[in-house]
Amino acid sequence: MQDWQQHFIRVGAGGSDDYRQAMATCTEQITALFEAAQAPYSGIDPLALRAAIARQPLSQESVVPLAAAIEEAGTLIGRNSILVQHPHCIAHLHTPPMIAGMVADRFMSAQNQSLDSWDQSGAATYVEQHVIDWMCELFGYAGSGDGVFTSGGTQGNIMALLIARDWAAHRISGHDVQRDGLPPYFSKLRIVGSAKSHFTLRKAAALMGLGQQAMVTVPSHPDGTMVVEALEPTLAGLRQAGLIPFAVVGTAGTTDHGAVDDLRSIAAIAQQHQAWFHVDAAYGGALMLSRARHRLAGIEQADSVIVDFHKLWFQPISCGAILLKDRGHFRHLLHRAEYLNRESDELPNLVDKSISATRRFDALKVWMTLRAVGAATIGAMVDHLLEQTQAVAGLVRDRPALRLLARPSLSTILFRYVGVPQADALDDFNRRLRVGLLKAGVAVLGETMVDGQVALKLTILNPCLSMGDFEQLLDKITDFAARLPPAQQPA
Ligand SMILES: Cc1ncc(COP(=O)(O)O)c(C=O)c1O
Fold it and tell me: Which atom in ligand 1 lies closest to the alpha carbon of residue 310?
């Protein structure tokens, strides 16, 4: 037997022994890591960490047994990683994943199914389609709709706008963008969303050859929602200027405010202007499972919706989906390859609907979670987080050294430290406070801008936290701020 065979699972009795042992060692390292964890980050100086990682040689001569590499992964990498499960790791839309999803990840990596074609996936193709059909039902697309898993919101937004662009070019002039490239009027195409819509829409416009100029923004209210009254005049103004607003984007959960746009009103205006209506529900899509689902009213009228399961559905990264109300629009993404998805194939090849070829079986994570946890339980977790966020906002309001900057909508708190000595500029102080807390391993907070001011952000995605955890976090922030040395004056 070649020595390298030990590095693979072989079919048949005993062929998984090396795997079993490696996974047992891995599980031990991981549990040890969480049991010993005291902080959301070890506090090691970033430069020292970089040097320690660079010191691990990657040459063939330095190869160690797998058990030793697993130990290194635990002690050097795991211990110095950002610990999303820690109560004071609360910066981003970056969730502690559920165990059901992690278990699915183990199946996925061992079996390594690829969702481009049936002959690389078998059951996996049907599982993904089953989950997608369930999502279509949930979002009000049953019958006409379809979807596909994505690597997350970025890919979903790109796919939605790409399909919208090609749909619009076909409708306007019978132009086939996939075959012939951009239409002659491409520089006039415009996408309209709110000022708080996600940056990946602009990125999508750039990638699609329309340029970032194609993204036009409508103002947002202080709470982060779109000023819907400004949408109609914006669309009319663009048309008057000879431009073509072909897509309107509503956001169900903006990244900072968690703001949910008035989707019903936006849908009506988009329809009036014969524009594609896309909803970015990367963050807020999970409201559909909660008591707050009425806040998404109108989403069923969208032509496309994206959802991130690696946000409020508590799945390991990466895991997202795009849904289309009319499954026929997936034809804009269809490319045939003789070796993969022949027209004559009887069995389904999901590559027909995706911009990826080789694709992970992320649907198994959602399937496992729905089977073992259940949609109602996820909905209850979301409701709990929404309520808890309001209570945490109360804690912030009660502290004179902190100022709440916006009323929370979903599960984010925007605030800043204001108890600084007069000489210190607030923006600079809050920036230094966040970085100081991070580097010292005390707390991992978000930082953003609210109304032109530097803001700190708590993104509350961990359903296992108590109010005591938040009291403690706010104590730590205020204590650290009180001891933060003054800014160094430029020489
Ligand atoms: C509203 C919104 N849309 C899209 C995205 C991009 O999603 P992803 O990071 O999964 O690519 C994010 C990311 O936070 C988001 O908040």
Answer: 10
